[in-house]
Amino acid sequence: MDVPVYNIKGTKVGSMSIDEAALGGEVNPALIKQAYVRYHANTRQGSARTKNRRQVEGSTRKLYKQKGTGNARHGDKKANLFKGGGHAHSKKRTREDYRLDMPKKMRRKANRNAFLSKVVDNEVRIIDRLEFAEPKTSAFVGFLEAIKVDRSALLALPAEGEKAAGTRRSARNVEGVTICRADQLNCFDMLNHRYLVIGKADLEAWLSGPWSQITKDAKINPMGRTPEAAPAAAPRRKKQEAA
Description:
By secondary structure, the chain is an alpha/beta fold. It is built from 7 helices and 6 strands, in the order E-E-H-H-E-H-E-H-E-H-E-H-H.
């Protein structure tokens, strides 16, 4: 599949060939949903708490006198009947863990398959050189209009580099644009945005980097792993000469 490549002015300057078979061949909704639910569940803190009337901040003054008003008998305004009052049965559970697990190879397949779905729907914008000389929000808004991005967009940038810093500063105040690292693309972020904007070099690195290992080789011979330093040999002790 050939995907058009644009420059920063929105002009088509070439195309990039993407192997559909390496991305799963066809969209697998069940796999994408499983990964999406996992990423979503792992964002939960599990620390929901509610306050009882003793923990609500405020005055403990009695609202009105006990008798003679015709109203029900009340003390302070922290009762659960009043707005802003405490809960009758407040949540006091310990921190809950909502995290879900998923094999590494399945996660990578789901991420690549989600990218395939964006490519099929023509929602990927590949830029030859995604660089801005100076941080300027208006220039980035004009860039989005040039590449016909009129909805929410996920902007994938390299983790380091001065060239990416100008682009990051230009895009951080634009509504509907989320910035992420190009080496951390996942199906949750891609599916939560209509368009994906990424540089050609960053996309090639993601397609051929460690995230491309979706077979058993990912466990046997993983890419990107730094070689472990060999343990230093203990110094030999000299034998003490007999006196």
